Amino acid sequence: MRRLQFIEIHEQPWFPSSIRDEITDALQFGFNLFNAYAPVVPLLQSALESTNSRTVVDLCSGGGGPWLELCRTLQSPKERGDAPALQILLTDKYPNPGAVQNVRRASANHISFYPGPVDAMNVPRELKGFRTMFTSFHHFSPAGARAILEDAVNAGDGIGIFEITRRTPLTIGLMLAWALMLVVCTPWIRPFRWSRLLWTYLVPLIPLALVFDGVVSCLRTYRTQELREIVEKLTPGGYRWEMGEISTGKVPITYLIGYSQASS
After folding, report:
1. For residue 148, what are the CA distances in angstroms to 118, 142, 152, 246?
2. Cα–Cα 20 to 30 A to 25, which of 36, 123, 179, 229?
């Protein structure tokens, strides 16, 4: 199945920001419900330890992504001695402040939020830390994906890419089921909003966007070999790159991790 560089509706500049926030709230609900990225914890823990990073700068965070559960796991007994607690900074090109404030409170302030828009291809240099992207790298063309990695290398920051979407009929089917599940669970998504019910059940813009964008996400996702080809075109920066798939027994998670060998 060939990769398609197509648009996702909710990430377009013309898409209403209030409904975009409703969609990211729904996606956040799904991340929290299934804890889908739990299998990446050992990889992420190893990368943080190899780079001596106690700060994570998450790019394209939406409503917070999987960080509420990941933060709790990474803050566990793995903390050694008097090492400072891990701090996670969420960023996005289209910030959803309401959602991330809820995540911040639930994390006991281990998660914070950068209020301004952040372009993953040109991250402000004051945002130092190990960069992460969850279910968002596929949004970018090969040139844009390479620019994201180049920007991390130029800043001397490590980066971890994690994608649960894949270009397979099974994953596309699961994405459709997941989107429909989110529609059924809409009344339980918090904070409760009447507008969410309006745009889900009376004028079904949210479910249509979830289904369409879920399928497109799968069709845009890079495979391991394609990630390798992107990395090979990067300016040499003394970085170590690891890529592959984690088999979880459900849907494999594709990952790409890079960091300076000088920091390891």
Report:
1. 12, 10, 7, 23
2. 123
